Structure formats: C-alpha cells, structure tokens
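Quick one: structure for this chain?
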Amino acid sequence: MIDAKLERVIRKIKRCLALSQSSNETEAATAMRQAQALMREYRLSELDVRLSDVGEVQSEKCRVRRRPRWDRYLSTVVGKAFGVRPLTYRHWCTTRKRAVERALYVGVTPAPQIAMYAYEALLAKLTLARREYVALVRSGKRRSSYSPETAGNHFALAWVSAVEGKVHELIPRGEDEPGIEQHSTGRDLVAVEAQDKALIEQYLAGQEIGKARKVQEVELDLNAQLAGLLAGQRVELNPGLATAGADQLLVSNEESPE
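Got it. Here's what it folds into:
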C-alpha cells in the first residue's frame, strides 16, 4: 500500500508529466523538470509512477464453498474483455466466521472497477437463469440424465459461452474515432494493452498466487448446453455496463480527502 503522502507526490508527478506534453515548449520543459525533481527527491522511477495506477478490486459476492467452474469462467471472460487479471481470493471472513472465496480483479484503474461491475451484473443474471433451469429439471419439465444441480452447471457454462461475444462488443476499441487512422489506432491499442499487462505482472510479482487447478474434461449434458446457449443469446447487455464502474470510481475519488 502507498502511504497518503507518497500518493499525493505521485499525483503531482502525474500532473507535471501531463503538462510536459504541452505545445508550449517552455511550460513543457518546466513541467518535466519538476516531475524529474520530485522523482529524484522521493527516489521514484517512471515505473513506480505507472504502477501507482494498478490496483485490485474484490467482489462483494462471496461463497463459503469453492467458486463453481461457471462462476470462474464468467470472471475470466469479463477479465479478458476489460484487460484485467482475474483471480480467486480466499480469506477468513470475520462476519461469517469461516473461510470464503470471492472474485478479484487486478488491473490499471479504472479497468478493474468497470470489470467488477460488469461481472457482478452478469453474475446476477446468470445465477437467476441457472436457478430457473435447475427448477425445471427438478420438476421434470426439462429432461436430463444428470442431477438438476449438475445440469444447471452445464447450462451455466453454455450461457457464458453465448454471452462472451456480447461482452467483447461492449468494449470501445477506437476503430470509429473520427480523425484517427484505423491501423494507427490498432497499433496504439496493442501497445497500451501490452503495457497494462506488463504493469499487472509487475504488480503481482513477489505476491503468493496459487496455481490454477487443472480443469477436468467432462461430458456435458447436450440438452442443458442447448438451453444455456439459447438463454445466453437472448441476454441483452446495456452499453452502460462497460462504463458504469468508472462512474462509481469517480464518485469515490471525489469524496476522498487530499
């Protein structure tokens, strides 16, 4: 964690670096000198400044048991779309007085906040759709050679597969920005994504992260798969899903003391 004083210094450095891009050469040179002086005084590197933008966000939803495969699959799909690292955070919950698991995203702000908002919104939709399908199997209105809960898991995996493309379509990629050549924008986007990925890896370096468990291949219930795919294809995603988390972050930052 960065202490409050250092955080204020880094904000000053960022403002100076932003001013260093000014078209006014004198102003730009002065701003760059100020940024460099602050970095020398506090022994900060450019990497330190960039790393200050990397953070992590935990889901408010938690499970007392291991997160099911379809839940982890959903967080991975959303994480990939928003360019953040999806992880599972297991810790002791003082409220429940037992260990719990919850989704966690690591990335360059505000991406983790936006990704978490999208994940939790989709998780609510998926949980409801799965619960309804399980009830249908249990009542005999849907046929399955598996238990209702297992059929529901297969349904949920297919639902996520169907929604994956829709999530990616929500993310602005810059192709339609006026006055910018598409091939140039594409190169810039790749460069930014590569830099963000490197910063995330640097942030996680030295932290203890467990290895992902090997996913066992299982034969899925075809009926559940078809039902899940159809249900996922019917899901309509609000374009605001790709920005709403940033609005929450903005409010939080405005309220935080200097």
